[in-house]
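Weekly structure sync, notes
Attendees: PL, DS, HV (note-taker this week)

Item 1: ATP-dependent DNA helicase
DS walked through the input record. Source organism listed as Eumeta variegata. Sequence as pasted into the shared doc:
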Amino acid sequence: MDAYLIRDQQLTAAFNQVHAFELLQDPIVENEDVEEAEMPETDMTNEQFQAVQQALNVEQRELYNTITASIQRQQQDESGAKLRYFITGGAGTGKSFTLKTLREQVNRCYGKKAVKTCALTGVAARLIGGNTIHSLLKLPVEKDNRMGPMPLLTGNYLRVMRNQWRDTEFLFIDEISMVPYEMLVMINSRLQQLKNNDRLFGRINILVFGDLMQLPPVHGRQVFEQPPHMAGGTHFWQLFTLVELTQNMRQQEIIHS
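Item 1 (cont.): predicted structure, written out as tokens:
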């Protein structure tokens, strides 16, 4: 875990230097290793949500409208296609602002907490009001620089987890550059188990955010690099559609007005 502590320190420094958008709220995690309790998602007031909607630039609004339209189609036809987007952009292009706005819109469309949000490290998770990937999905922690096999959930624990994920329609993953490809494969397998659905990612919509030019994984291959021993199987990264934000924005003042 020392590698992750070092990465947390690096990420904190990186956010201080390049991220332009402050948080709506900074939930404090007393113990980020607690696995049973999920951190609540951050909510906006109606006034805040109206303000951020008005602050969306052309690129952000196009994505916002696309996702809203997809939700409406999915609500009418549950067998429809699910979204898999990789939302990227350089510093100041509003990735965090976009994530929070989309999360709020998804939850409002479904009238429930339909989004789960996570990132690899505790610092990254706190910055978006989410959980760590390991805690949220009960994935194995690396030991001796290697990731162990993913244990299957069973019995009452599996029933509890499936109940927690019952209403989940979207998974948002931030700082995707830090996630190794091998973990993306595990995320697919775990979602299939939690949603009791063998189709890709358990038929959950997945939006991943980040900049692949930023921090790479501590161990393992980058999220877009399929290991040779997995060649011939599904290339999970190629399932995602690229959405690039290019307009430099300064939107944190809108949230706090």
